[in-house]
Amino acid sequence: MAIYHSVTELIGRTPLIQLHKLDTGLCSLFLKLENQNPGGSIKDRVALSMVNEAERKGLLAPGGTIIEATAGNTGLGLALIAAQKGYALVLVVPDKMSREKIFHLRALGAQVVLTRSDVNKGHPAYYQDYAQRLAQEIPGSFYIDQFNNEANPLAHSTSTAPELFEQLEGKIDAIVVGVGSGGTLGGLQAWFAEHSPHTEFVLADPAGSVLADQVESGRHQDAGSWLVEGIGEDFIPPLAHIEGVQQAYRVTDREAFTTARELLKTEGILAGSSSGTLLAAALRYCQAQTTPKRVVTFACDSGNKYLSKMFNDDWMRQQGLISRPQTGDLSDYIALRHDEGATVTAAPDDSLATVLARMRLYDISQLPVLENGQVVGIVDEWDLVSHIAGDGERFALPVTEAMTRHVEVLDKHASESALKPIFDRGLVAVINDRDRFLGLITRSDVLTVWRNRLQQ
């Protein structure tokens, strides 16, 4: 086996796997595992190409600062390269990015600037406009601008495309791609136009993005919103050469996330939200064919960046993307059901240090205290602040010393209106089924249910 001397040498040459456990109709569907790149995504190729080209052209001085606007994966690739080459890196990212990506970026030494994800191109808070403005303000910086950088598609025309062609011995009927910056589509099209002109390109686009409209009608309206990260746009990226796409599929967040979760369960591949979009479109394309075809799509990045979101049932329920069967009572409002093992609880003899650790670990602010399956108290952050009062030794005391013993209990058959007086007093509602504890209802839980009703 070869010995490598830098993680940058591990970029590219990713494996290709044929999927056998999903319904591909008459077609053979292949997934190129770009999540096996060292930074975990296809964007490692782009980051290396753009930095190398900037160095070659003298646009990036030693010790300089790279600035970029990114939905995450290009940023991770750049952070990997910048750390290896000794560049500072400032990344402007939309605030819908997963926490795992932000933690990963900061761990690599990048400065992360969060900006709004609810504004469009031309607004000063739009992530690309923001990054361009920073590049003008910071001395010695270079805005790498993946959306207009020709080294972006170059990465795919010189590596991704010939790799695919070699792996499938030149027999590729269709490639299903998504568009973020447009480099993957543009680069692949350029290479295949010369070496395999019969290969068809199919667009997988998040519902709400304008790109599918452009493919189908040559024009588009204003963009909507979507939760999938990394692909879909509110404008037409010039690098994409979208006019070369023969067919487009719109994929909802629900379908994208569900498909990515199914890929993990059936094929054992942990891939991200954009991969779910591509795979959902590829499956629909395959199932629509009346003759066998060899179809390729990508696992664009790793699903380990979305464990707190797409692979978290509670987050999925909060977004209205999955739901339990409705029972028509207050149990429908409980986000974390005790009978599903989701409620984080404390025992009476747990220490206050243990309680605080659980609050931090699960990002919650209160815990029910259970004894013999019954709620005997509630402890929240204010109880800890009031009881400890600056004396660190009091963290060793049992939770019974600080918990509030008066709890507001409602039977699950009580009316929704019974919740408001409890919330008015700043409390949470304990919901029982007769004597059996079901879970807590907070104000946030009620708001989530109301919002999901509106979306339906």
TrEMBL record:
InterPro entries: CBS_C, CBS_dom, CBS_dom_sf, Cys_Synth/Cystath_Beta-Synth, P-phosphate_BS, TrpB-like_PALP, TrpB-like_PALP_sf. Gene3D superfamilies: 3.40.50.1100, CBS-domain. Belongs to the cysteine synthase/cystathionine beta-synthase family. Its EC number is 2.5.1.47. GO terms for biological process: cysteine biosynthetic process from serine. Residues 336-397 form the CBS domain. Pathway: Amino-acid biosynthesis; L-cysteine biosynthesis; L-cysteine from L-serine: step 2/2. Transmembrane segments: none annotated. This is Cysteine synthase B. It holds the Pfam family PALP. Keywords: CBS domain, Pyridoxal phosphate. Signal peptide: none annotated. One of its GO terms (molecular function) is cysteine synthase activity. It comes from Lelliottia wanjuensis. Its cofactor is pyridoxal 5'-phosphate. It catalyses: O-acetyl-L-serine + hydrogen sulfide = L-cysteine + acetate. It is an enzyme of class 2 (transferase).
